[in-house]
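User: My instructor asked us to take a sequence, write out its structure as tokens, and then describe one feature of it. I'm not sure where to start. Here is the sequence I was given:
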Amino acid sequence: TPQGEYSQRELALLARLSLKVTPAVSARSRCDETMDAIKSYILRERLQSGDVMPTETQLCDTIGASRSSVREAVRKLEALNIVKVEHGKGTFVGSLSLDPMVETLAFRSMVSVGKNFTDLQDVVELRRFLDLGCAGEVVVSLAGSEQPRLMELAESMTNTAKEGKTFLALDIDFHMGILDSLDKTV
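Assistant: Let's start with the prediction itself. The structure tokens for your sequence are:
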């Protein structure tokens, strides 16, 4: 498919994943609505990782939610790395890392092993989807730069795969190397 367009298989995967993680509209709690309001506030105010969030009282007034809803929403958002609470200092926009999603997907795949390969297939498909979705931008960003460490890791992964062995540590090093290289080009 042309870049930017999704295949039917990818669309089906996204639909399956969104059905599993998105609650039905009728089942949405006040906490979920408050979480959405806080996320909207962060986006509307263009806050970045590390920026100070309003106080609990200010958030209640700004988004029109009760203290208990704001507290519960902030706890959930902290678990997702969207906000970070530092007691005595305040609440800040979090690191916004993908760690919670990765943890959830990894756990789902471990739970389903031997029972249902649909979840494992979802993890593999999502990985493929993310890798392919980012590959073009990575290539453009790193074009013309020497990347001997990445080349060495790619060669090691290829050789290890040819030997029929797994290469998780090499794969992690490779992807971390890409991130490090991208940080230096930005």
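For the description part of your assignment, you could build on this observation: The helical segments are 8-21, 30-44, 56-63, 67-79, 99-112, 117-142, 148-162, 168-185. Try explaining in your own words what that tells you about the chain.
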